[in-house]
Design brief:
The structure holds 2 protein chains of 2 kinds. By secondary structure, chain A is α/β, with parallel strands linked by helices. In chain A, the strands form 4 sheets. Chain A has a 6-stranded mixed β-sheet. In chain A, strands 3-2-1-10 form a 4-stranded parallel β-sheet, sandwiched between helices. In chain A, helix 4 packs across helix 8, helix 5 crosses helix 9 and helix 8 crosses helix 9. Chain A is elongated and about 90 Å long. By secondary structure, chain B is mostly helical. The relative contact order of chain B is 0.05. Classes of the chains: A alpha/beta, B mainly alpha. Chains A and B meet through helix 15, helix 17, helix 19 and helix 20 of A and helix 2 and helix 3 of B.
């Protein structure tokens, strides 16, 4: 059984995304959508969803009713009280320190750097008193500025969860001048004029950072304790990564990483188009599943119900089963043996992707010509059958076909003009056309040197890899032998492809 | 998907209907003679084999243009 532990901040974000709670600040929207996507992925890829019932008491029942597909655990059961104490102790050891206007303690310094938050604190005068004020660097109306707003809004939003500004979450900040002088609270109180301590906004920011650190640690330890994977709000996830690096506490986000890898390829290609050149730290992943379900169900309010329905489908059942097997392999055999076991399973994951209709193929000119070759040899006959079988799936849009400039060119050189014209028609069914580019040529040059293949083959391989194909199919044994696997792409004979993946590309099903 | 028997039967009908009995048989003869022993995978082994990557890329770009022009020409002919 696999469990996904969802934090309350994510559920609040989902409530904002679906319109159950009013979003007070539009800058939180990206983070909310990422949290919404996390929940949808958790529904699809986990057997059970759990959440710790530590939300504001007056809203608890209503929330439990709305998210009736989640098992809410009392925060005092299952040894969770001890986890809370542990997390509080760990969070208390974090001492925020601002030196010369910037965070200088290891924890927040690294986090601020990791999130690329260009922030400084300066002493600004208000009513004859200087207050330490938080400033974000950057020009308004630029993508960078928008990003800082989104990030700081997400961080400030942490406070809606805690409801405290001063108090345990912000009293511990140490202020140190650029020359190394440590300011004491007393100095601020004594001075009627001069330095007046931190502004309320900075207090709130620090309180929010502290709260975020505490909650991230709490959910990380709780997930490990409950043998679940943690699905926490994206901004907390950023801190979780830092904390895991610091403590070496890995192992509770295993499945989510695996799903991340599955959708990574689509995510990367879409983000390259939409978000070209922009460093989008907060938009951790593109909401692939939620965006698709929104379109399918006709609106964001129907997404969760559709996801719960889709969860029952065969392909997601297979995906969950595979994830369970991989998890068991890790749990039972440990990291090294588990790794060895899992290495023999990627083809199974590829099969799931295929069944889910995500598979992208590149067929080289040998494949397209196979039906026109002399069929008296058994291998040629089998490869022809396989190629026809695959093309049937292409026609039904169950497999994505990629075409390239080098396919067009090589086809143009085909000695039989009738065959050339018939093969050229397949280009119209391709989902993607890869034109010549310097990147393709550079990739091809490396391939030639590394794998000892000729220029035209190197260009085919480069086009297939660059367009994100899972497989390149060819009947050229030499090419298969010299390449095998390039990055994440496999080079295979079409007959082998059909034999290995038969049950998933059987068009009669 | 149609089985081999149905495809053969429908294929022969289409062929003989379009070409008539003599030309249809000549077509089958030509096909069998031309494709006998032909293996495209073997044939392409020597294609542009003496050319450098830059040369192959340049040839490819030229041929791609040629294919595009022919496609435009053919589709114009259909429209005409």
């Amino acid at each position: 059984m696999t469990y996904a532990l969802i934090d309350n901040a994510s559920l609040t974000a989902v409530d904002r995304a679906t319109g159950h709670i009013v979003a007070k600040n539009p800058d939180t929207i990206n983070g909310d959508l990422a949290a919404f996507e996390n929940l949808v992925q958790a529904i699809l890829f986990y057997d059970n969803l759990v959440s710790i019932d530590n939300y504001k008491e007056e809203f608890r029942d209503e929330r439990a009713k709305r998210f009736s597909f989640i098992n809410f655990l009392a925060s005092t059961n299952f040894g969770l009280s001890t986890i809370d104490e542990l997390a509080k102790r760990e969070a208390a050891s974090i001492k925020p320190e601002i030196r010369g206007g910037e965070f200088s303690d290891k924890d927040f310094k690294e986090l601020v750097e990791m999130l690329k938050l260009n922030m400084v604190c300066t002493w600004d005068m208000r009513s004859s008193v200087y207050y330490l004020t938080m400033k974000m660097l950057g020009q308004p109306n630029t993508p960078e500025y928008e990003k800082y707003s989104e990030l700081s809004a997400s961080i400030f939003n942490e406070l809606s969860d805690s409801g405290e500004t001063k108090g345990p979450w912000s009293t511990n900040v140490t202020l140190i001048s650029a020359s190394g002088h440590i300011y004491l609270e007393q100095e601020f109180r004594e001075q009627k004029q001069g330095l007046g301590g931190t502004t309320r906004a900075l207090d709130m920011f620090i309180a929010a950072l502290n709260w975020m650190a505490y909650k991230s640690i709490y959910y990380s330890i709780a997930a490990k304790h409950l043998k679940a994977d943690s699905f926490i709000h994206p901004i907390r996830h950023a801190y979780q990564i830092h904390w895991m690096k610091k403590t070496g506490a890995f192992g509770h986000d295993f499945t989510s990483r695996l799903i991340g890898n599955l959708s990574n390829k689509i995510g990367t290609s879409v983000s390259e188009i939409i978000d070209h050149g922009r460093v989008a730290t907060i938009t951790l992943d593109l909401p692939i599943f939620s965006a698709w379900l929104t379109q399918e169900s006709g609106g964001i309010e129907g997404v969760i119900a559709s996801a719960l329905e889709l969860k029952k489908a065969d392909q997601f059942d297979i995906a969950r089963q595979t994830i369970r097997e991989i998890k068991i392999a890790y749990d039972e055999d440990g990291i090294s043996l588990g790794n060895a076991n899992v290495l023999s399973r990627p083809s199974r994951i590829e099969r799931c992707k295929l069944k889910m209709g995500f598979l992208r193929l590149y067929l080289d000119n040998c494949c397209f010509n196979r039906p026109y070759d002399d069929q008296s040899t058994l291998s040629v006959y089998l490869e022809t059958q396989a190629k026809l079988h695959i093309q049937e799936q292409v026609k039904k849009h169950q497999i994505e076909l990629v075409w390239s400039f080098i396919l067009t060119a090589e086809n143009e050189a085909n000695p039989d003009h009738h065959i050339r014209d018939k093969i050229a028609d397949w280009m119209d069914l391709a989902m993607l056309y890869v034109p010549y580019s310097l990147d393709i040529e550079t990739f091809a040059a490396n391939m030639m040197e590394r794998n000892g293949i000729d220029a035209k083959d190197a260009l085919h391989v480069a086009c297939a890899v660059e367009s994100g194909c899972e497989f390149l199919l060819t009947t050229d044994k030499k090419l298969i032998k010299r390449t095998g696997r390039i990055d994440k792409m496999r080079v295979l004979n079409p007959a082998h492809f059909v034999t290995d993946y038969a049950e998933y590309i059987d068009y009669e099903k | 998907m149609k089985n081999d028997g149905v495809i053969k039967s429908e294929g022969y009908s289409a062929l003989f209907e379009k070409l008539g009995p003599v030309d249809a048989e000549r077509f089958l003869m030509l096909l069998s003679r031309e494709r006998q022993g032909f293996d495209y995978t073997e044939w392409r082994r020597n294609l542009w084999v003496g050319n450098s990557l830059t040369e192959v890329a340049a040839i490819a770009k030229q041929l791609e243009l040629q294919a595009q022009e022919r496609k435009i020409h053919t589709s114009n002919k259909v429209i005409d």
